C-alpha cells in the first residue's frame, strides 16, 4: 500500500480538479490491481497571497507552481495537478509531467450581466479580462468595448461581475464546467474567431521523475490524443517564446484522416490541425495561421514559422516593451 500525497493550492478550482483527479486515479489503480491511496495537502503559494499586484511584475504565473515544486522535490508531496496553461514549459530538474488527462472544453466564454452575447453587448460595455490574448481578440471583434483588468480566482471574478464592476467577463469554459457552474455561461466563443490559450482545458500532472511506481499509474491516466494536441500547441508557443503575458492563442485538434495509405492498411492515420494567432493587444492586428500534419512538433513549428513570416515577432517585441 502506497499513500500518494497530492499538493494543492487553496483555490476552489484547484481543490475541485485535484479531487476529481484523485477520484479518477483511485478507480484506475483499483482496476489495475494497484494499491494506492491518496491524500490532498493544501499549500498556500506566494501567487495566492499577492492577488492584487499585477502578476507579471512579481514573477508571473510560475509563482503558483514554484512552491509546490519545491515541496515535491523535498518529498513533502508526491504529485500535483495543474491547469496545463499555467504550467511552465520547462520543469525543474527531477520533475516531469507524468500525465495529460483527457481535455475538458478548450474554449473561452462570455458571461454577461444582461444576458447579451458578444455581438449584442451595449456600445462601450465594460469587459473584465487581464489576458492580452483575450483583450486582443475582443477588441478586434468589438473595438468599442472598454476592456479592464480583473484578477482573482474564477469565483471572485464572477462576484466582481455580479457586483456591477463589469458588464461582462471572459473565462475558460473548462473551469466553469469543473466547478459545475456552466449555467453561468452566456455565450461560448468559437475558436473560429476567438482562440483559447495554449493548453486551455487540459491538466498536467507533475511528479518526481524517479517515482517509477506512481508514473506507471499516471501513464495509464494519460490521454494520448490530448497529449498530441497540447504538444502541437506548446511547441508553437515555445518557438514564439511566449509566456502567458503575450497575446498568443492556439488550438489543435487531432482528426482521424483517411488517406490512401490508410485505406490500404485499414489504419486511419492521425492528422493534427493547429491554428495559432498573434495579435496586438488593442486588436488592430490579428495574425492567424493554420497548418495540418502528422507530427505535433512539426505542426507547431510550422504554424509559428508562418506567423513569424507575417510579422509576429515585431508584434510580440512591441507588446513586451510596453
Ligand atoms: N488564468 C487562470 C486559469 N487557469 C486555468 C483556468 C481555467 C481552466 C483551464 O483553462 O484549464 C483559468 C481561469 C480562466 O482562464 O478562466
From TrEMBL:
Keyword terms of this UniProt record: Porphyrin biosynthesis, Transferase
Organism: Paenibacillus planticolens
InterPro entries (UniProt xref): HemC (IPR000860), Porphobilin_deaminase_cofac_BS (IPR022419), Porphobilin_deaminase_N (IPR022417), Porphobilinogen_deaminase_C (IPR022418), Porphobilinogen_deaminase_C_sf (IPR036803)
SUPFAM superfamilies in the cross-refs: Periplasmic binding protein-like II, Porphobilinogen deaminase (hydroxymethylbilane synthase), C-terminal domain
Transmembrane found in the keyword field: no
Cofactor, free-text remark: Binds 1 dipyrromethane group covalently.
Alphabetical list of PANTHER family matching this protein: PORPHOBILINOGEN DEAMINASE (PTHR11557)
Residue span, Porphobilinogen deaminase N-terminal domain: 4-215
General remark: The porphobilinogen subunits are added to the dipyrromethane group.
Function (record text): Tetrapolymerization of the monopyrrole PBG into the hydroxymethylbilane pre-uroporphyrinogen in several discrete steps.
Cofactor(s), names only, from the UniProt record: dipyrromethane
Domain Porphobilinogen deaminase C-terminal: 228-307
Enzyme class: transferase
One Pfam family per UniProt: Porphobil_deamC
Substrates-to-products reaction catalysed: 4 porphobilinogen + H2O = hydroxymethylbilane + 4 NH4(+)
Protein name stated in the entry: Porphobilinogen deaminase
Record family assignment: Belongs to the HMBS family.
Residues modified as S-(dipyrrolylmethanemethyl)cysteine: 244
Gene: hemC
Single GO molecular function: hydroxymethylbilane synthase activity
Subunit structure comment from the entry: Monomer.
EC code(s) of this entry: 2.5.1.61
